[in-house]
Amino acid sequence: MTRARQDRLLALLTRNGEWETAATLADSLGVTPRSIRSYVNAVNARVPDGTAIESGPSGYRAGADAAAAQRAGSAPEAGTPRDRLHTLVRSLLDSPDGIDVFETADSLHVSTATLDADLARVRGLLGGTELTLERSASTARLRGTEMAQRRLLSKLAHDEMDAGLFDLAALRRTLGEGSVGARAFGPFKSELVGELGGMGYFVNEFGIGDVVMHIAIAADRITRDRALERASTDSSAAHSEVAGLLDRLTLRHLGVQLGTGDREHLATLVLTRVVAPGAPSADDARARLDPEVEASVRAVVEQAAADFLVDIAHEDFILRLALHVQNLLHRAKEQAWSRNPLTRSLKSTYPMIFDVAVYIASGLQQSLGIPIQDDEIAYIAMHVGGRLERSRRADQLLTATIVCPGYYELHELLRSSVDRSLGQAIEVVGVETRVDPDWESIDTDLVLSTIDPARPSDRIVRIQPFLTDSDVERVQAAAGRIRRGRRLARLRTELERYFDPTAFVRGIDAGEGESGVIRELGSMLVAQSVIDDDYVERAIEREALSSTAFTDALAVPHAMGMTASRTRIAIGIADPSIPWGEGRVQVVALVAFSETDREAFQTVFEQFVEVFSERDSVQRIVRRGTDFAAFLDELVAVIDG
C-alpha cells in the first residue's frame, strides 16, 4: 500500500503541476502530513541523481525527474512481495506439470509459509480468468485453457503498466527478460499501423498498445510450444487479409511463425480493438452491422438525446457508435477489454459528456446483456464528445467590436488579422474608425481597441494596429475570463435555488462505503419529499456502473433520470477525506434533478465540477464551511472569484 500511495502522490503532483502543501496532499491520500514527507523521500530515492519531487516553503511539486521516477516506480524491486508474486505466476504458467513448493521457496529465498501466502495471493488474481490453482502435497499447478493463461499474463502486464499505456519494459518483466525486445517491436508496430492505414482503416493508437501486448504474449507462448489450437469462425475477406498481414509481420520482425489458432485470434483482436472502417458509405457499414445492435444503439442514443438535451441523434453518430458497440460485443465474449488512458481526464474535464456515456452504456448493458467497464465507457464518451464538438452552436462565439481610427485600409487589415487568428473564439460584428467613439454604446462582449478607452474595462483589450502574438494571447485570455464568468454566474444563480440547510452534513460516516454515504444524504432529501427511496437505490446502481468521483475532491452521485419532485442538492463534507471509487474525496454532492430543470442540468453539473477541480478552492470551502451558512458563503465567494 505504501508504494501505491507513493505512486499516487507522484501522479497527483505531476497532473496538477503546482505547489501543494503537505496537508492538502495528506487529505487527498488519506494519510498524515508526516507520511507525505516520507513518501517524498522514497520517491526521490528512485532517482538518486535527480529530483522527482521538489520541496520548498510552499510545499511540494513535481520535479524535472518525475517521469523517470514514475518509470522506476513501476518496476517491482527484487525480493518484494509484488516481485515474488509475478515470478511465481510466471513459473506456474511455464510449468504445465506444476512447481515444487519447497524448491521454489528455496529459489526465491523465502520460507515455505511465505510461499504459501504468495500462492494465496495468486488465487486472488485468478478471478475472471477461468483458471484454478491446485495444490497436491508439495506440487502446485495451474489448471485452465491456454487462452485463460494468456488472460492472466495480460492481467499481470497491465498491473505493471501505467494508466493502460503500452510499456515494453513492463511487458518484458511480465514475460521474462528472454522475451521479445524493443528492436523488434518498434519496427513491428510502425509497419502494422502503416499497413492497416493502407488497407483503409482508422487506427486507434490507444488500443493498439494492448494488441501489440497480446501479440508479444502469443509470440512468447509459441516459443514455449504453447500455441492456440482453437481457430476463429470468421471467414470474411477483411479477417483473412488482417490475419495474413500479422502472419507476415510476426515472422519478419519477431522470427515467430503463427499457427492457425493464433493467427485467427490476433486478427480478431485487431479488427475489434484497434481499427475502424475508413469512412465507409452508410450502406456498406450497415451491411456489416447486426440489426439488433443498431436498433439498441439507436434507441438508447435517441433517449439520451431527449433526456440530456444533447444533439447526438444523428445517423453518422449512430452508425459509428453501433460499429464500435459491435466490436465491444466481440471483446466482451473474449473478455479482452480495451484500455483507455484518457478515462480519468475525460471524467474530470467533461463530466456531463461522461455521464451521457454512462447513460448510453447502461442502456446497452440492459438491451444487449454485456458488462461495460469504465475504460469502455470512456470510448463511448469520446464518440459523444466528438459529435457534440462537431455540432457546437455558433452562438457560443463571443461578439467583438474593433476600435481602430481610420487611416487608409488599416482597420480592414486589422479585421482580417483578427478573423484569421481569433475566428474560432470571437466574431467581429462591428468596426469603429472614429478616434472618439461612443464607448458606452458599444455593447459587444469584447472591444479590441488600438487606442486607450475613456475608462478601463475588463472587456476592453488594448491591441496593436498590426496584430501581434501577444495581442492574440491577451484577447484569448479575456475571452476565457468572460466565458468562465458567465458560466459561474449562471451556476451561482442555479445553486442558490437548489441548496437547503436541512440537506447538509459535516462529518460523513464512510463506514459503509459509497452506498452508505449516498443513503445518508438521500435520507435528507427523502425527508423533504424531494425523492423517494427508489431514487436513492438507483443512485447506488449508477455509482456501481462508474464512480462519480469526477475530481480528486468531489463526488456527485445521482440517479439516471430526472425524477425528483424538485431539484435539490444534498451536501456532505468529509474532513479528512474518505475513500470513493479508486480515490478519495472531501465533498459529496447528491444531486436530484426534476424534469422541469432539465435545461439547467448541463450548467449545474459541469460548472459545479469545475469549481471543485481547483484544489485551493476545495480546501477553502472544506476548511471554512463548518456549517451550511458558512459553506454557502465560501462557495459563492469562490465562484465570484
TrEMBL record:
All copies of domain PRD, residue ranges: 288-394
Keyword Repeat annotated: yes
PTS EIIA type-2 domain residues: 497-641
SUPFAM superfamilies: Phoshotransferase/anion transport protein, PTS-regulatory domain, PRD
InterPro entries per the UniProt record, alphabetical: BglG_antiterminators (IPR050661), PRD (IPR011608), PRD_sf (IPR036634), PTrfase/Anion_transptr (IPR016152), PTS_EIIA_type-2_dom (IPR002178), WH-like_DNA-bd_sf (IPR036388)
Name of the protein in question: PRD domain-containing protein
Annotated GO biological process: regulation of DNA-templated transcription
Top-level division of the source organism's lineage: Bacteria
PROSITE patterns: PRD_2, PTS_EIIA_TYPE_2
Keywords linked to the UniProt accession: Repeat
